[in-house]
Amino acid sequence: MNTQIVAVVISEGAKLVGQWFRNRPILIKTAPPAPVAEVPQQMPPVNSSVSTEEKATEIATGCIPCAIGHLGTCSGLLNEAMRFANSDGMQSNEVIDRVGKCLDELNAMERVDLRPEMLVSLPDWERELADQVLVASRETRHALEGFEFVDALEKAAAQTQTLRTQIWRKWIKSKMRHLTPKEQARIQEKVIEKLDELQLEEGEEETAG
């Protein structure tokens, strides 16, 4: 197998992993219901494939990936703000507006994507990442709300970019380590399908040549 095929397979595998985790439901373990008095009325049996201990909720999944997206947007805004600050000064509307938009991103991340309702069902390792993001986000907000000098803005931009990179790396590596057998089988199946397609295309090219 040539190097190009190997590279594509690895790339496709990574994409499939990301898509699988973003689309999977969050499972919350619930305690057994308290006993209640019997009701004389007979109720028809209900067939359900959902376990009472692992009930899928309607809460959107992927609060950490969404948080990473907010951090990436904020980092880009601060980098642009730095460019205008160096050329036009800290009182430029371009600087002020971009810092304000970054604050909006951080507020949305903290109050929506990382709100308690989203964190309560996360595994311990993912909850730890969320806590790291929340602490760093609050520190960045406080720094930006009182920024006066270019150096402070530059420091906030650098810290936001570093946080985004670190959290993304930790999240994807931990996800790979915590794949269930079912998830592993599905991803492996998709990668094999892609590999077969690439080998077929390579064979056709050699025949045509």
Question: How is this structure best described in words?
Answer:
With 209 residues, this protein is an all-alpha fold. The protein folds into 2 domains: 59-178, Four Helix Bundle (Hemerythrin (Met), subunit A) (Up-down Bundle), CATH 1.20.120; 179-209. The protein is 72% helix and 2% strand. The protein has 7 helices and 2 strands, in the order αββαααααα. A two-stranded antiparallel ribbon has the order 1-2. Helix 3 runs antiparallel to helix 5. The longest helix has 28 residues, at 150-177. Mean pLDDT is 75; it is low at 1-9 and 25-61.
Describe how the helices and strands are arranged.
Layout: H1 3-23, E1 27-28, E2 55-56, H2 63-88, H3 93-113, H4 116-119, H5 124-145, H6 150-177, H7 181-208
Antiparallel strand pairs: 1-2
Q: Helix and strand string, N-terminal first?
A: HEEHHHHHH
Work out the oligomeric state of the chains in this entry: single chain
CATH topology of the largest domain: Four Helix Bundle (Hemerythrin (Met), subunit A)
Distance N to C terminus: 18 Å
By DSSP, the count of extended strands is 2
Structural class of the helices, strands and pairings?
A: mainly alpha
Low-confidence stretches: 1-9, 25-61
Q: What Rg, in angstroms, do the CA atoms define?
A: 24 Å
Pick out its properties.
209 residues, mainly alpha, Four Helix Bundle (Hemerythrin (Met), subunit A), 2 domains, two-stranded antiparallel sheet, 7 helices, 2 strands, 72% helix, 2% strand, disordered N terminus
Explain briefly what this protein structure is.
72% of the residues lie in helices and 2% in strands. With 209 residues, the protein is mainly α.
